[in-house]
Specification:
about 170 residues, mainly beta, two-stranded antiparallel ribbon, 1 helix, about 10% helix
Length: about 170
């Protein structure tokens, strides 16, 4: 992935987590709740591994292109996270052993959300399960209302290249 494409992917993930749709990505692991205003939400989603972290390279991340998450809770009561590629920091007990780029996975992640400030505090993958190679993933974008007059609609997500034998 080129540096500019990587920067664009991280920016898109940050917007999604701010619109996470709704979150600024905080580097590293999600901080534990500091008080009662921080709520923890857990989501499970399927996706395809796009990048594994490279040992010794702090700039590399575990990247997954995931299906839409209609029930995702964001700021101002917004619901839904669209199909996207995004980085997932790993909880301490999560391993990527046996995973390769192109593998299909079921991933559970937690988002710590400060309800008082209406902002996400961080997120991390807490469980990763490798799925069979013939698993069909659904990268249909969430249906969104039409843009306001005079505003352009966002571009569609990038197509997912086929993987595996016979593709």
């Amino acid at each position: 992935m080129t540096p500019s494409l990587r920067a664009a992917a991280i920016a898109a993930a940050a917007i999604a987590l701010a619109a996470l749709p709704a979150c600024k990505r905080t580097p590293g692991k999600a901080a534990p709740p500091a008080d009662d205003s921080v709520k923890t939400y857990s989501y499970t989603v399927r996706g395809q591994v796009r990048q594994l972290p490279q040992e010794g390279n702090m700039q590399s991340d575990f990247m997954v292109f995931h299906e839409a998450i209609p029930e995702f809770k964001g700021p101002k009561g917004s619901l839904g996270m669209d199909v996207m590629e995004m980085p997932f920091p790993l909880a301490d007990d999560v391993t990527l052993e046996g995973l390769r780029v192109g593998d299909k996975v079921r991933l559970t992640f937690v988002v710590r959300f400060d309800a008082r400030l209406d902002v996400p505090r961080g997120y991390e993958a807490t469980r990763i399960e490798k799925l069979p190679p013939d698993t069909r993933l659904d990268f249909t974008p969430l249906t969104r209302p039409a843009p306001a007059p005079g505003r352009a609609a966002p571009p569609p997500p990038a197509p997912v290249p086929p993987t595996g034998p016979g593709s």
